Amino acid sequence: MNIAVCIDDNGGMLFNSRRQSRDRILIEDFLRTAGNNKVFVRSFSEKLFVDINVSVNDNCLSDAEENDFCFIEDESILPFSEKIKTLIIYKWNRVYPADFSFEMPEGFKLSEAYEFQGSSHEKITKEIYVNEN
Fold it and tell me: Are 90 and 107 in contact (CB under 8 A)?
């Protein structure tokens, strides 16, 4: 499966059970990256994908198949790292308060990185990692 996460400069993802930020253009980029593959989101992220054909599944990390894409904001991906082919990390390039942080699984190598302008952020960095295990 393929995973996408959004983090701040310190790896933060959530603060007081809320996402740190949101960006419409980032969501569009994620959907373009997923292409015609199945896209899973957890119910926490559902409101970011209004009027978009995605599968809402709180067990998506368990249920996703090889070519599926999962957008994860509120769960650790570490227990599923062996299943992950590609990891997409969107960086906000800011520091926000955080009480839940991303943990990078071992064995992933950076294959591509670039920056783009979002709808709410001047600069978003997209890093694509591949699983070398």
Answer: no
